[in-house]
Amino acid sequence: MRYLMLVCVDPSLEADATPEETDAWVESAGSARLDGNALRSPREAVTVRVRRSERLDTDGPFAETKEFVAGFDILECESREEALEIAAAHPVARFGAIEVREFWED
Predict the structure, then answer these.
(1) Cα-Cα-Cα-Cα dihedral of 77, 86, 96, 68, to 10°?
(2) How many domains does the chain have?
C-alpha cells in the first residue's frame, strides 16, 4: 500500500530538524520511502479556484493557519502501522505534525 506523508510545521516555534537528522530518517526508512522533498514557503504558493468557468488565482496558501505543509514523502508499506511507525520516526514529528494518508487505489 502506498501512503502520503505530509510534513507540517509551525513557523512560530523555534524547533527545526537538522539536515543530518532528516538524512538519518531517510536512510532508516530505506526502500519504503519512494520519493519526497521539502517545499518552498507558503508565501510563494498560489491557490487556484475555478468559479463560473473563470480561474481565480490567489497569492499565498489556501487557508490562514499557523501550521503549513513543509514537505512530503511517499511510502510503500505492508501495513498502515508500518507507515505510522516510519512517520513517528521522522524528526519533525517531535515538534510538528506528520499527516499520513493512504493513496486511493483504483
Answers:
(1) -30
(2) 1
